[in-house]
């Protein structure tokens, strides 16, 4: 009888942090061994973290990673784990040309076994792998306890042909894949369908181990799984948290046993959690323990504050109300209520005296005077950040970022922008969802995310977290009397539909008109988006949750005179 | 007898501006025809501009470019230029997979001839071509008036093998290359040596036509040339300006006749001019006619102001002195002198009252209080920018950018950063050079650059342009009493050497110690550079003049915990 117990180690790594990543491999290997695993599989580029971008090009880093792998193999053996097969990702070197390679290695018996180099190097959207790696060309099969284990790394299963196709002739018993597949709304189904297709081609079960956690502006959702040759789901790990689960592969069985199958969150919970995890990890990996942000009473800052409270606890959130002469009383109340609901610190810093001091010297009019207010607020937020060591959060959403409807160096200041990839209509939707979740018992910090394995608990809130008034009132920047967003932009219900078609689906002017949008709206939106490219480049990092996020995916020249 | 007159059309294109680029092709073709040219050769991606980045992925743009090429072919024929062979670069489509291609087409007799697709797609440093294009696989030879003309596009001659190697068997009479090769100090020699190597392989003359002008953060220096099969220089176009020159290829001659050979500027003039051209084109292509910047009396803002005056005329430069309680009288005088020398507008906006107003509310200490001063200045600079439609210039140099020695949203604000790729020691060197050039008759705006073909003239200046005091005094941010840069940083003479080794040559810690730098300096510099990654991402665009400029070439993860 040939059976093999695989442990799927869905872990959160940090780019460049070889020590911590290696320690985590050791810890998960120990736990896997205690559960009688034979093989433990980690995500893509486990030791180095992923994506490492041009760090891969530093020879000193490659050497350090190589030394760390050898040290880790010895340590595993020294700890009595030498019999375990530990499959980790790391960086290798192409001996022909010295270029880095995206490599899987097997640690066993105190030795680093030669492994497998990723063949297909994605170079679209958020990926720059062809830029930094050279491609592997050989497939790889490990024979472990009589079980033939094939290997693939992430993109290798997304493309037809290559080493996975070659494995069809190799009569493998199981395909083990290591992945660094970033989150995108709805991607769970795409990955599963793809895995089923490859399992069918290979007529063998497929193990899909994915990274979890935020890394700069990417969020990895985990959601590792295993699928049988016939498309039966035999294991699914939870999303957005570290996890270790087990799959037994028995070559004598026609169908593999079904192991644990975690539930999948609904779409709002999924997106919200991705944003929270992105922020939480960005803070942890950059050594921030608290955040500060302006609270205007509007919906954007309210949602960001709620996310921040869920990420680090309300007591580590410093809200700053910065009313001007144009701020309504309702807005001030909404800001105070929100801060109270999440248990945040709350300071009021009126900007009128500062505005007057500037105006005495500068005497600005119209938009310049509006920007001045936003920039005074930016200075105050950064003063809190600098003097208290807090991460400043920018609260802009994707709709306003797309249209350039924000003040650069004003409301756009911050080190991280949690909702930069969330359209305004989705901001409202997520806010409603968060209030509903609170009613169902999800307290502050009660998400299923890394480091919090207690499930929906957290600090309970009476009533709504986000004041209903912030959700239902017409959006306004409140930079002049009676100002409304709709003075400058189409209504968001319409705007977001046009933006999605224009940006994410790359529809041109003729397509947009054929989509049924009216000419004036189309021309307004296209003009705004085309002109805002420079401003988008200056925006802080923020989590990618959509098919196309600004910053990572879309690289347009600033000096771009193309107009349809 | 087989002779062919080639016109080398070194032009400045704008990305996405199909109309203007096509009009320029028409104009240069007309001039070439008047000089009896048979073939006129334009730079890489002439019609679309270069580099077009992800704009290539928009189907509507590709269609518009294709339509424009056909319209242009007809227009050339309609204007009596149908007999001319007009070689232009544009974007094509790979019919197998729909991906864009970097294409050369030949316009002749009112028709767009099928052309040649670039084979080697650079994907390192500033280049992202493999990301957006698919690779051509066939070489191409045009037979024109009995002369066999081979074609290559830029990177095709930088790599061994490929279509150029195939041309060796094709017995071509001349290789015509279209290039979009960005400026880098000292690259002129590298290009020439490379061209000689290929000409020798082909045993045929090589024509190298390069783009000129600034495009976002790249500067193309032109410097087109032709080299005979034996390495003899037969033509060299001037750098940094549009130009049309001619090369006769006579297949009956053993050696081709030498045409015009433009002089090459010295290294300081070259770098200075690259910065000025980058700024000038960034302004023109983004429709700015003037700039504003803070003038501190220090060397960085003085050099940037001089460059700005050379780019757009002193009368379009608005200097703003923003003294604080810590500003020395010397600094205020130096700022005023500089503004006077270049003929700039000059306003004084003391920041003390504003600083006091903020401090009354915030009571900040130490670095937070220093940053507050810089951010108040940032607000003022942006107020000038917004209210007067001026391009705000950031005056930071590469040394401080590398070390994070600047205030984000403070002195780093601006739309363009002319010296972001210039180390501090080079800032002094260029300042001295500019003063010396003025003594030799180079007035304000008197550079050999696009749009100014009058040579070294410009508005004459009496004495120095940049006050000697700004050059010789110890650098200080003047944000607290008696502050000096050397309180926080190693002396610049040393710092810049370490930075160059660490950043541009990717030396690791052990290498740097082996280079002879002392341990404390090495550790200080590495720590500063490693921590400043996020701040560098927020920096405005600026011209690349070195082997490795921040922004374009170096993509490091922000959350990067690798420490040697």
UniProtKB/TrEMBL annotation, chains A, B:
<feature type="active site" description="Proton acceptor; for glutaminase activity">
    <location>
        <position position="44"/>
    </location>
</feature>
<feature type="active site" description="For glutaminase activity">
    <location>
        <position position="118"/>
    </location>
</feature>
<dbReference type="GO" id="GO:0008795">
    <property type="term" value="F:NAD+ synthase activity"/>
</dbReference>
<keyword id="KW-0520">NAD</keyword>
<comment type="function">
    <text>Catalyzes the ATP-dependent amidation of deamido-NAD to form NAD. Uses L-glutamine as a nitrogen source.</text>
</comment>
<dbReference type="InterPro" id="IPR014445">
    <property type="entry name" value="Gln-dep_NAD_synthase"/>
</dbReference>
<dbReference type="InterPro" id="IPR014729">
    <property type="entry name" value="Rossmann-like_a/b/a_fold"/>
</dbReference>
<dbReference type="InterPro" id="IPR036526">
    <property type="entry name" value="C-N_Hydrolase_sf"/>
</dbReference>
<comment type="pathway">
    <text>Cofactor biosynthesis; NAD(+) biosynthesis; NAD(+) from deamido-NAD(+) (L-Gln route): step 1/1.</text>
</comment>
<comment type="similarity">
    <text>In the C-terminal section; belongs to the NAD synthetase family.</text>
</comment>
<dbReference type="GO" id="GO:0005524">
    <property type="term" value="F:ATP binding"/>
</dbReference>
<dbReference type="Pfam" id="PF02540">
    <property type="entry name" value="NAD_synthase"/>
</dbReference>
<feature type="binding site">
    <location>
        <position position="181"/>
    </location>
    <ligand>
        <name>L-glutamine</name>
    </ligand>
</feature>
<feature type="binding site">
    <location>
        <begin position="294"/>
        <end position="301"/>
    </location>
    <ligand>
        <name>ATP</name>
    </ligand>
</feature>
<dbReference type="GO" id="GO:0004359">
    <property type="term" value="F:glutaminase activity"/>
</dbReference>
<feature type="binding site">
    <location>
        <position position="400"/>
    </location>
    <ligand>
        <name>deamido-NAD(+)</name>
    </ligand>
</feature>
<dbReference type="InterPro" id="IPR003010">
    <property type="entry name" value="C-N_Hydrolase"/>
</dbReference>
<feature type="active site" description="Nucleophile; for glutaminase activity">
    <location>
        <position position="154"/>
    </location>
</feature>
<feature type="binding site">
    <location>
        <position position="187"/>
    </location>
    <ligand>
        <name>L-glutamine</name>
    </ligand>
</feature>
<feature type="binding site">
    <location>
        <position position="535"/>
    </location>
    <ligand>
        <name>deamido-NAD(+)</name>
    </ligand>
</feature>
<feature type="binding site">
    <location>
        <position position="124"/>
    </location>
    <ligand>
        <name>L-glutamine</name>
    </ligand>
</feature>
<dbReference type="GO" id="GO:0005737">
    <property type="term" value="C:cytoplasm"/>
</dbReference>
<dbReference type="GO" id="GO:0003952">
    <property type="term" value="F:NAD+ synthase (glutamine-hydrolyzing) activity"/>
</dbReference>
<keyword id="KW-0436">Ligase</keyword>
<dbReference type="InterPro" id="IPR022310">
    <property type="entry name" value="NAD/GMP_synthase"/>
</dbReference>
<keyword id="KW-0067">ATP-binding</keyword>
<protein>
    <recommendedName>
        <fullName>Glutamine-dependent NAD(+) synthetase</fullName>
        <ecNumber>6.3.5.1</ecNumber>
    </recommendedName>
</protein>
<comment type="similarity">
    <text>Belongs to the NAD synthetase family.</text>
</comment>
<dbReference type="InterPro" id="IPR003694">
    <property type="entry name" value="NAD_synthase"/>
</dbReference>
<feature type="binding site">
    <location>
        <position position="371"/>
    </location>
    <ligand>
        <name>deamido-NAD(+)</name>
    </ligand>
</feature>
<feature type="domain" description="CN hydrolase">
    <location>
        <begin position="4"/>
        <end position="251"/>
    </location>
</feature>
<dbReference type="Pfam" id="PF00795">
    <property type="entry name" value="CN_hydrolase"/>
</dbReference>
<feature type="binding site">
    <location>
        <position position="395"/>
    </location>
    <ligand>
        <name>ATP</name>
    </ligand>
</feature>
<keyword id="KW-0547">Nucleotide-binding</keyword>
<dbReference type="GO" id="GO:0009435">
    <property type="term" value="P:NAD+ biosynthetic process"/>
</dbReference>
